[in-house]
Design a protein that fits this description.
The chain has 674 residues and is of the alpha+beta class. The protein contains 12 helices and 21 strands.
Length: 674
Amino acid sequence: MTAELVRGQNHPLPHSRLEIRVTAGAPVMACATLGDDRGTVLGIEWVAHPGSPTLPGIEVSRQAAASLRFHVDLEAVPDRAHLVHVLLALPEGVGGPARFGTTAAPFAAVTATDGTEIASFTITGLEAESAVVALELYRRQGAWKVRAVGQGYAGGLAELFGDQGLPGAREFAAGIQEAVARHMASAIQAPLTGTPDGVRVRSDRSATATQPGQTAAGAAGAAGASPGGSSATGATPHQRPGTPGQPTGPADGQGQQPAAAAHGTSGGRVNYTHPRRQTTAPPTPPPASPPAQPGQTPRPVAGDATGWSMEERLYNQVWGMFEDLARATAAYRSAVDFAESRMDQELDRVLSDPRSRIGGTGDAAREVARAKRDQLTDQAREALDRDLGQLAAESGVVEPALPPAYARWDNPVWHAYRVPMDNPMALRLGDLHLPERTDLRIPMLVRLPLERGLWIDSGRSGSEAALMLDEGQLRRLAMDNAVGHAARLLAAYPPGEFTVHVIDAAGSAAMSLAPLVGAGVLSQPPASGAAGVSSVLAKLTQRVDLVQMAIRGGAADSLPPDLDTGEQLLIVNDFPHGFDDRAVTQLRYLADEGPAVGVHLMMVADREDASAYGPVLDPLWRSLLRITPVADDHLADPWVGHAWTFEPLTMPPGSQILRRVLEQVAEARRAWRR
């Protein structure tokens, strides 16, 4: 099964000899660099480019083209090289596009030599950049993995090489561009996108899925989530303990560049990304405990992963736990299937001989076959229990160490909550588990800022938990869940960096919204009625338009002084009540265009209620990450095919922590405005 990666997500490479196939909407040139254990390129002899297309184990194309291939033999890569970066750049001075934002999103696929696709990545979100690190192949515990990076550079190859530590980067990049320009007459033109063999592209919004985070835990469902964030097509965190997100950095599987940098502006007040996100490989943390003695299991340590901060290391560790649980369970299920298949084959052979059907011969053969099946199954279960025990021990030390944005509501860290001064890296949406051990929960984290909206399904989806509740109870639970997520976002951001708007057209969510309204943390009272719906949507739509124009024009500093450039969250309850055709169009526009400029959507709705609109809203539902207010196993992991059960976060009975946290947030916001 092909893994469709999102930024920061990684995937094991089962073969050492590979091809990397790239298609783009315009001719691009291919380069590859080898990096040491810190990601540094030590010299030009570590760079493969059209003028010198080969390195040990690496070969790139000699000319710019809209369709390229990299040939890779990982066994031949020098031992000193720990990373292989796959680079794409637009040729300069040849009359072609000057930035990736004017072309179709490049697409990269890693394949075996027989053409079998292993992993793919659509490099979305590029605007002013003219060079990009598309993929990263890296060694991890003796094996190779591929990570989707998507790190763009508005300064082109010169800036990219400089970021990788290459001496004389600017002069070297200019020489490559000059060599490519001389051969552009033979460059292959971009194929038409409408033909079967055309460029394989997807829209910017289709790249995500989850992260369990960026999520089964994020990989959740082809539209999924990630545990650590983003989709199982969701995010499937496949980094143990690498950095799941931006190039690291990345700490975001979904990591984007700052809006200002991504669009070539000078910065200004527009920057919707994690301020501490790095562009170089993070350091490996020193061991926090003595090494285990021979024959002993290493003692788990919180933050035992790479990263630039404890927050990032914990995030990466959660992704690693998800990956380990997915892999261990897949191995167990495969072993059980093999045992059953082997028993069936042996029984078929016995029963194919008529002489064995009479007397005790057949019965004895059946007993032997079943005994072998049971022995193999018991061995597999023993190995699984050992692995699950280690993960449970790790979870036991990781869970108490999580920061508020990653922690459950019953974590004591909330009692020591203080309003933060830095933007958060990720947000916990719930927990994920598999039926082999339901008490082993992996946090489902999604990277921030959100690259797709959230849909909290208030319908009776068919899960056992949902069928036991009536429609009114589900709607109330769904809205309570939305308020909890909004409160966590408000608590995770510094004052003035996050604003929440609410549309409650029928006024049916007053009880659920009481904590937000009572604390005074909403930008304005919940909008009701058709006029309220129209007013909020018009305001946010205008904000998206203004910020988009400012960014594209490189004039982020010229935005109106009264414009709130902090991130915005719109909660829509009971959609489509109160929405006319114009309002529906505006909502779809916000879902598509809003995330790139800091406007995010959280819908609380039953899809069946919108059935009167027909298929026109199908793209809207697909663009959102669906979660449920009750336990549901709808998150599908595309990596190994698991169906993960999602458990929403719930407030402990009688707890006042939500009120106390929101009061602190409100006080900090008042002080910030003074």
